[in-house]
Amino acid sequence: MHDRTDAAPSPGPLSDDPAVLRAVAEQVAHEAAAHLRSLPPPRLPSGGDVEGAVRTKSSPTDVVTAADEAVEALIRARLAQLRPGEHVFGEEDGGDAARARWVVDPIDGTVNYLYGIPAYSISVAAVQHGESLAGVVVDPVSGCTWSAARGGGATLDGRPLSVTAATDLAQSLVATGFSYRAERRARQARMVAGMLPRVRDIRRAGSSALDVCAVATGRLDGYVEHGLSWYDWAASGLIAAEAGAVVRVPGPPGATAPDDGLGAEAILVATPGIADALAELAREQGAAEV
Q1: Which residue ranges does the record annotate as region Disordered (predicted)?
Q2: Is 232 part of any known ligand binding site?
Q3: Residues 96 and 204 placed together within one structural domain of the fold
Q4: pLDDT tens for residues 222-251?
Q5: DSSP letter (8 states) at residue 196
């Protein structure tokens, strides 16, 4: 487990060095994970409202728990202490994306958290002009920590990461995820159904950050999904890229997405040997319309 409370290295006031930002992100993410573990878990009674779910967002199934809000509040408070004056863009409390230095997802995989499924994560990324400079993803259950700094490589618990050497899409394990909105979920299901016979198999864990980190770790060969937000991939996307993956993301809010036929809201992360083939398969199966 990684419950670090020591002060982050500080070679100078508010350094822009990606290694320094990475150290701050690691410290804050570890503290957030420890805080989440200390909170009473939400309960799912048989019938009635979920205890611990405080509101919904895009649909009745897209819930926000008291833990989401508590973890984000702690992250914001610690960043204000360690990096005073820097703007935070978070999933729960939002913010000005154009001014963001930090992009935060307090619990990615909230539904898993609600149901006691041990597949959720905390993401903290440092950005500059919309580009990730450092990123950390922590699994609060296992304590595993994925970390990267731009130009400095990616690690899992300090061990360097690299993607698989897969070159045959038919033998590749690919992950995906689904929207909380029923109409988009149906379109995603049709795309995935068309892709399934052309790959080794499909996985759906419920935390996009963990899936993208799994590509970085070599546990998956590729990942494709539509409709994610900046806080979902700001940290994990950098980790995958620094591990050698091809990473296609829509960009931060307000950015112009790549015009490549995958759809404006698509994220695709893959080992280089299958990236082009995976993208082409997604296009063939209607990715642009998802």
Answers
A1: 34-63
A2: yes
A3: no
A4: 999 999 999 999 999 999 999 999 999 999
A5: G
